[in-house]
Amino acid sequence: TAAVQTAKAAEATENTEHDTSTEKEEANREIEDVPEYGAREVKTSQTPDDILEDKSLPAPRLTEVDTSETGVIHLHWEKVKKASGYVIYRKIAEQDIYKMYSDIKKNTFDDVDIKPETIYYYRVRAYIQKGENKVYGQLSPIESNGYSSRVKSKY
Q: Smallest Cα–Cα separation from 139: which of 44, 46, 42?
């Protein structure tokens, strides 16, 4: 019917409009939760929407993404008001799950543990420390301020 043909045409248009849609879907997959930085990794089905979250704590927005010839990927993002710290999640392109990579207090991060000519994806999330618990804000978008969380190492 005409309605089915229209729907198929719209779907084909959507598929050709954004070559990066698959990358964005990959980047939005589950995040692996690690109870403590440095602890043995524990795979769970926990996703960003399943953890203790405060929707009023905004997602960090990237303001700088840079790679160097010396093997460092530098990330910088806008400070989030009221944030006690930030959690960095990282995945390598061929991986399905983001892993908690670092828990830091500042709004800048240098990843020095990278391999040559490798694509990395990063997501950042602010948190507020409430006693022994962390209440997490929204997860950073795949792209913000013209910067992508997809980075290819140069060296």
A: 46
